[in-house]
Amino acid sequence: MRLTTSAAICLFAALPVIATAQSAEDALEARHGYMKMLAINMGKLSAMAKGDMAYDEAAASTAAANIVALTQYDVPSLFIEGTAEGEAEGSEALPAIWENPDDFATKFTELADAAAGSPEAVMGGQDNIGPALQKLGGACKACHDDYRKKD
Prior knowledge:
By secondary structure, the protein is mostly helical. It is 70% helix and 0% strand. The protein has one domain: Four Helix Bundle (Hemerythrin (Met), subunit A) (Up-down Bundle), CATH 1.20.120. It has six helices and no strands. The radius of gyration is 20 Å and the shape is elongated. Keywords: Electron transport, Heme, Iron, Metal-binding, Signal, Transport.
């Protein structure tokens, strides 16, 4: 009886740890998915800007609109404790994220600011993509410089 009671107590005590492990895993997977969606849309714009892909005004505007939509997501909430590089497999998030959470959140606000108006800005010809892409890329780089493990 005592063994069963002790085992039950240990199991219930471990549940938050198990739930946190699952949450950390889910958060990391969601972050990777989010960054992949950004990369796909940035890649389309970049390919058009370079001439590697034919300029398509509707596709360019859609890619930019997708980026705008992605910037509305609360991405900092996916950076939970225990998911830094070295703590979670596949993470490139530096501990500086948790040391400077306000600045980290500001970087995502700056990405949203850079994305604002980009669906219209990329219309009208291939030459219009570059300036919008520079603003977006600059915002991405600002965050990666401070908060992502260098390759």
